[in-house]
Amino acid sequence: MERAYGDHTHRILGELGIADGAKVVDIGCGTGSITKWLASAVGAAGRVVAVDRSAEQLTLLSEDIDRDSIGNVTVTQADAMQIELARGEFDLAHCRLLISHTAEPVAVVREMAALVKPGGLVVSFEIDINGLTSFPRTEIYDRFRQLSRNSGQAMGLDFEIGTKLPAVFRSAGLAAPDMEFIEPVYLRGAEKRFWEYTARESKLPVQTGLMPEETFSELMHELETVANSELYAVAQPRLVACWARKAANPGPMTEQQ
Ligand SMILES: C[S@@+](CC[C@H](N)C(=O)[O-])C[C@H]1O[C@@H](n2cnc3c(N)ncnc32)[C@H](O)[C@@H]1O
């Protein structure tokens, strides 16, 4: 994932401008690949609070923080919809690939908006499965894209949420969000197979009962054949960045601002 999306995420966060000494909250931080980048961006005078509901992920991140002597990160175990941190204290609230894992996107972004100061920045990076395809187009990638979308739906998740982020931000009370599409396309390398590897690991189509194990294995084999051919490039799910600043003097929030 980091190889497919990492550089793009860092570039956009860098362009948005993270000041030395800034206070940042990274929600759904996982093992903290972005947390650690943010920690370095805010410098020793800054602070990053890393939030995740998974104790296992936070333990791995804590081990890294200790090993690398990163002094400006603290970890907090919490659900993204109810984070017990002081409201209106942060310069930036960030999440990547969190909202596609939750059933209530607006509630998550509303929580992020509550955590930042007036004028503070809310930034989210989320996938849109419709970006997944091969060039030239193949029937197997059309099938894989459809199957991925349906597996997400079967879990109550929306793998097209990326392109809907401006609407989510507005519903959460953040006016005038901006967005950028990241379309990673690869001819070779592990990045070319990022989404295939994710599917192999999660086996979501099998777990959700959409496909028997044997058919799933055949599908994975066909995807591998495309990936191994340099006659085909593969586009991973697009990553959509969306950001907005909280109003300096926020008025009452409405559902469809
Ligand atoms: C795909 S990982 C992304 C990790 C990291 N943001 C990144 O981009 O590398 C999703 C993370 O969100 C966390 N997560 C999912 N739902 C959550 C929730 N409701 N509240 C807090 N964390 C959540 C998971 O535990 C997992 O660590």
What does it look like?
It is a single chain. The chain is α/β, with parallel strands linked by helices. The protein has one domain: Vaccinia Virus protein VP39 (Rossmann fold, 3-Layer(aba) Sandwich), CATH 3.40.50.150. It has 9 helices and 10 strands. A 7-stranded mixed sheet has the order 3-2-1-4-5-10-7, with helices on both faces. Helix 2 links the parallel strand 1 and strand 2. The mean pLDDT is 94. The site of S-adenosylmethionine has 16 residues, from helix 2.
Essential attributes:
single chain, 257 residues, alpha/beta, Rossmann fold, seven-stranded mixed sheet, three-stranded antiparallel sheet, 22% strand, binds S-adenosylmethionine
Secondary structure layout plus pairing:
Layout: H1 2-16, E1 23-27, H2 33-42, E2 47-52, H3 55-67, E3 73-77, E4 90-96, H4 105-115, E5 116-128, E6 133-135, H5 139-154, H6 165-171, E7 178-182, E8 185-186, H7 194-202, H8 204-207, H9 213-228, E9 233-235, E10 238-245
Parallel strand pairs: 1-2, 1-4, 2-3, 4-5
Antiparallel strand pairs: 5-10, 6-9, 7-10, 8-9
Helix pairs in contact: 1-2
The chain binds S-adenosylmethionine.
S-adenosylmethionine binds next to helix 2.
